[in-house]
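[audit] Reproducing an earlier prediction to check determinism. Same input, same settings, fresh worker. If the tokens differ from the archived copy the diff job will pick it up downstream; this log only records the rerun itself.
[audit] input (139 residues):
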Amino acid sequence: MRQLRFRISAFTLLESVMSLFVISFIFMMFTISFTNTINIIKGELFILRFERIYRDTQFQSMVRKQSNNLEIVNKKLLYLGKEVEIPNQVEFLNSYKIRFSEDGGNSSLQKIEIYLPYTEKKMNYQLYVGSGKYRKSIS
């Protein structure tokens, strides 16, 4: 009876390098996509945080019966003696200072413009005088 001998062949150097290249390329594409998604989420979360800070500053003005400021200067958000760093995923197009009166209303018709570079969205907050409310639009 004749015995069958199987020959196990190994990858050649060229095949190994090609396999490594394909796997590295797939991994890099996944990483780039994942990083972009994380940056988009960070930008959207900061927008939600900004809206919450706006409402909290307004509420504290009403409760304490004292005027408060909400300032956006040099990549920082200043409010109620606190300082929040603005992430790179969010760009305020100007510096802003919003003053809330003792009854929670603001005294400005400012238009706050925010740009999110990873989604290429521009968000506008048009403030209403006296009420402290705003109208949000996305373009």
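[audit] rerun output stored. Observation attached for the diff report: The first helix runs from residue 13 to 64.
[audit] end
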